């Protein structure tokens, strides 16, 4: 079994889910008392969030690259960056193979036979090119909410979900945003922030949802077991 390097803390609320899911997946695959070989480096999200707001992406990338190097020293065979937004700096992580969250998600969308997909996430993820272009490179047509909806989706993530607050009224907001995306022709919706799955499930959507945390973590476990390749590489 390969050793999974979990680069988390952004936020730890979702990193907990990564740890749980990779271990559940390994137990599901192997049975008995099996669990995942993994190591985790958890950053201080307050420091990363400050760099995000200030637009200091190069510095943020440097810090995550250093964390990835620590994972390599701890024995990790590949890196799972446990956040959608910080894939903006994924190219700076070169010390180990990276299982890109956008590739894992796009593969699931294509496997479902969909091409026009809605995207929810932080404002950085919804508005900047790094994530939408990655999805588009797989042949997907990506729709994002309008300005007001994007602002509210982002606010709920940073003011509530990353600090463990899950509110029914916020769930209703997301349901309405998802419905508006579906009305515009979205065949499915990507839950493109690792915390959104704490709030929204398939039951809240009229179209298929693609939970990026679960998709990413399960693929990581399968790759560690030699059952799946890292998308875009020949690594088994």
Automatic annotation (TrEMBL):
InterPro entries, alphabetically? Asp/Glu/hydantoin_racemase, Asp/Glu_race, Asp_race
Q: Which UniProt keywords apply?
A: Isomerase
Does this UniProt record's set of keywords contain Coiled coil? no
EC assignment: 5.1.1.13
Q: Does the keyword Transcription regulation apply?
A: no
One short Pfam family name for this protein? Asp_Glu_race
Mind telling me which PANTHER family this protein's record contains?
Answer: ASPARTATE-GLUTAMATE RACEMASE FAMILY, GLUTAMATE RACEMASE
Q: Which family does it belong to?
A: Belongs to the aspartate/glutamate racemases family.
Instruction: Tell me the protein's name.
Output: Aspartate racemase
Organism from which the protein derives = Actinophytocola algeriensis
């Amino acid at each position: 079994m390969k050793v999974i390097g979990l680069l988390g803390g952004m936020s730890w609320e979702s990193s907990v889910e990564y740890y749980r899911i990779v271990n559940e997946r390994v137990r599901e695959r192997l049975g008995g008392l099996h669990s995942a070989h993994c190591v985790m480096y958890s950053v201080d999200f307050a420091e990363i969030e400050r760099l995000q707001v200030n637009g200091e992406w190069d510095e943020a990338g440097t810090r995550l690259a250093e964390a990835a190097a620590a994972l390599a020293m701890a024995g990790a065979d590949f890196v799972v960056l446990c956040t959608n937004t910080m894939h903006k700096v994924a190219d700076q992580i070169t010390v180990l193979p990276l299982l890109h969250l956008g590739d894992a998600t796009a593969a699931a969308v294509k496997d479902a036979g969909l091409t026009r997909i809605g995207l929810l996430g932080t404002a950085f993820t919804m508005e900047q090119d790094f994530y939408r272009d990655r999805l588009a490179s797989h042949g997907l047509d990506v729709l994002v909410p309008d300005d007001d909806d994007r602002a509210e989706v982002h606010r709920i993530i940073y003011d509530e979900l990353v600090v463990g607050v899950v509110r029914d009224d916020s769930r209703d907001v997301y349901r309405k945003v998802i419905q508006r995306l579906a009305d515009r022709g979205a065949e499915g919706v990507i839950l493109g922030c690792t915390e959104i799955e704490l709030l929204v499930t398939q039951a809240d959507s009229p179209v298929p949802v693609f939970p990026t945390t679960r998709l990413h973590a399960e693929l990581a476990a399968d790759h560690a077991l030699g059952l799946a390749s890292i998308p875009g590489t020949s690594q088994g």
